[in-house]
Amino acid sequence: MNLKKLYALVTVESFVHVKEFYCEHFGFSVSMESPGYLHLSGEGHAELAFMIQDQDAHEAFRGKGLTVCLEVADVDAEAARLTKAKVPVVVPLRDNPWGDRSIILRDPVGVHVYVYQCKSK
Length: 121
Known about the structure:
Shape: globular
Oligomer: single chain
Helix content: 10-25%
CATH architecture: Roll
Mean pLDDT: 92
């Protein structure tokens, strides 16, 4: 396999809140938008996509079982910024036994956003 790209595609009922959430809080920008599809691009190779539920699409995501992971340089600073912005926190900032420090947040449709920093060795 010669994989060129991988991104999550989440079926939603509306783009309004997810577009605002990822652009405002995580620096994503709209790389493509149509009435039924929204594609966001972030720093590096970060990408997320959303599509509107219709008769041809999968069932809309219902807020369980999906986590988007974002590795950052300074998770403490990001946690402070996102908490100040009142982004809903699922799991507060903590050190994990598997070797990173993280905070878990929730986006407007219930996707968990795992923001983390690998610990130095």
